[in-house]
């Protein structure tokens, strides 16, 4: 099992938040997906925002969150907007 902090974009603070919503490893984050992980985080931490969602997707895709393709960003933004 791979630690969450071994993933790009995931630091100690995000790791702690993910563990609080029952995501403990990199494999679990990949299996859960960025949208479901974000949904869980948003319910527990209402102040999480679109950048957190980008961060999660970037971690899964092994790229900086600011390097996500525009199409992916649009999809994630539409998903995030559904929580506001």
From TrEMBL:
It holds the Pfam family TfoX_C. Gene3D superfamilies: 5' to 3' exonuclease, C-terminal subdomain. Residues 2-78 form the TfoX C-terminal domain. This is DNA transformation protein.
């Amino acid at each position: 099992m791979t630690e969450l902090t071994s993933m790009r974009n995931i630091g100690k603070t995000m790791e702690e938040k993910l563990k609080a919503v029952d995501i403990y490893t990199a494999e679990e984050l990949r299996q859960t997906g960025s949208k479901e992980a974000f949904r869980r985080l948003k319910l527990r931490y209402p102040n999480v925002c679109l950048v957190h969602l980008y961060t999660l997707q970037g971690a899964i895709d092994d790229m900086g969150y600011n390097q996500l393709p525009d199409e992916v960003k649009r999809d994630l933004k539409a998903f995030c907007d559904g929580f506001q």
